[in-house]
User: Fold this.
Amino acid sequence: MVFDGERAIGHNTDWTGFAESFARGLPDAPTRRVVQLGAGGAGAAVAHALLTMGADTLTVVDADPARATALAAELETRFGTGRARPAVQADLAELLAGADGLAHATPTGMARHPGLPLPASLLRPGLWVADIVYRPLETELLRQARALGCRTLDGGGMVVFQAAHAFRLFTGRVPDTERMLTHLTDLVAD
Assistant:
């Protein structure tokens, strides 16, 4: 939140952080059909970013189907009918077979929540995989995807660019994002 006199202005730098990270890390990745795992707060930001960047169709899958349905409905209100839709985990094989990319926005893969958010057998060459987890930067999902030949994006860029955008809003100064990315790599290696 930034104050302009007595007026408070809210900003969401999660979505802009993801958008900048995606543009830098997967600049020419196709986004006709994207599947996203996770419909929580970070998932809502990632979904907003993907649709803002031009994804034709975003399918949202969450362990709580009601949460996926609610997010998809909210996104359709903002971006138009047919741009977002909910699905259930049982549909992942079919969804990923026809998808350009997979955005992962759940805690699975974090240091305290190790593992994969979906069976590795659902990944395939040609699919790009973007993860928002940044501790560790190399999640099991990214390791498996890279081994199959998928283009990957770790969560480090999202956290750095989100922080950089917030810093700029609060201070008016432009931070050195390259330096921040280097520091993040050092910090999460511990």
Observations:
- The chain has a mean pLDDT of 93.
- Residues 27 and 56 are 16 Å apart (CA to CA).
